[in-house]
Design goal:
By secondary structure, this protein is mostly helical. The chain is about 55% helix and about 0% strand. Among the domains are: about 5-10 and about 20-115, no CATH class; about 180-280, no CATH class. It has helices spanning about 40-45, 50-65, 80-85, 90-100, 115, 125-145, 145-170, 180, 195-205, 215-220, 225-240, 245-255, 260-280.
Length: about 300
């Protein structure tokens, strides 16, 4: 007669205390304390099976319980299939299963801690409300909400963000007013630089916390905050092929000739394109020798 742990899968009456669950999941929770847990070490010592094999067998039991109806039942667990999958002897799998029953981890073909460790998801009571708000917002967009309403909502959101920053102690920086953006005479382009080192210092400063003269100029002319102004200079620097002297000259000339921020930015972009195109063409080729015909006999 085969040992008890070699029983085949067959339907068994469930305990009256089990709660039949209808939800189905193709996953189950594995907690970070699972590997090397002391109860698996105990099972390994009781059965003489290695700790890694015990954990692999338990994972197969968990997977079987997750697919069962109800979830948590291991009535369909097959010792021979598990042994074949893990390349183990069926006797080893049977000893582990029997030890789990002996330690009351499995009772009446049901994992005793399944309901606590693998609870079903509770229905979200606010899901219907969120869906309704989303549908109302989408409906308003189709019907055409007026720009005044949108602007009012944006202003309200801005005020809320500003208040939240004040409560968190985050300093709030205001954008440069439009009137200040157009007064180019208030911004100084700095003295003439000599060499690549001074040009780099004018563009990028001496350290990460130092605001360079070039960044101050771009910040004031374009009405940007510090970080966007620094990114703008780095974009110009990459576009021109990392030539600090030429970039310094272009920015200063654009500052002196441009009236407003739009013309200032357009002038820099145009000068960079012209400089790159001229550099790619290279120097002009020398004139070929000219052959003169005729002359005195």
């Amino acid at each position: 007669m085969a040992p008890q742990y070699f029983r085949q899968s067959h339907p068994r009456p469930l305990s009256t205390t089990l709660v039949v669950k209808e939800k189905r999941y193709n996953w189950f929770r594995v907690y970070d304390t699972f590997p090397g847990h002391r109860k698996w070490r105990l099972i390994a010592k009781m059965t003489g099976v290695g700790l890694g094999n015990v954990e692999a067998i338990v994972m197969r039991i968990f997977a079987c319980a997750n697919k069962a109806k109800p979830r948590g039942s291991v009535v369909d667990f097959d010792v021979y299939e598990c042994a074949a999958d893990l390349d183990l002897e069926p006797e080893a799998v049977g000893r582990v299963y029997g030890a789990l029953e002996e330690r009351s981890y499995i009772d009446n073909d049901y994992l005793t801690t399944w309901d606590d460790r693998q609870p079903d998801k509770k229905p979200d009571a606010t899901n219907a409300e969120r869906q309704q708000r989303w549908r109302d917002k989408k409906k308003e967009g189709r019907n055409g909400v007026t720009g005044v309403t949108r602007n009012a909502n944006n202003a309200l959101d801005t005020d809320k963000t500003h208040t939240a920053k004040q409560e968190a102690g985050i300093p709030h920086s205001e954008p440069v007013p439009l009137a200040q953006r157009k007064r180019s005479s208030d911004v100084k382009a700095g003295n003439s630089v000599q060499g690549e080192g001074e040009a780099r210092k004018w563009l990028f400063g001496t350290c990460s916390v130092d605001l360079s003269e070039g960044c101050r100029l771009v910040q004031a002319r374009l009405g940007l905050h510090r970080a966007p102004a620094q990114r703008k200079i780095h974009d110009y620097f990459r576009a021109i092929g990392q030539d600090p002297v030429e970039l310094y000259r272009i920015i200063v000339e654009a500052h002196r000739s441009a009236i407003d921020s739009q013309h200032f930015e357009t002038a820099i972009d145009r000068c960079i394109r012209e400089f790159v195109a001229e550099r790619d063409r290279g120097p002009p080729l020398p004139m070929p020798p000219v052959v003169q015909r005729g002359g005195a006999a």
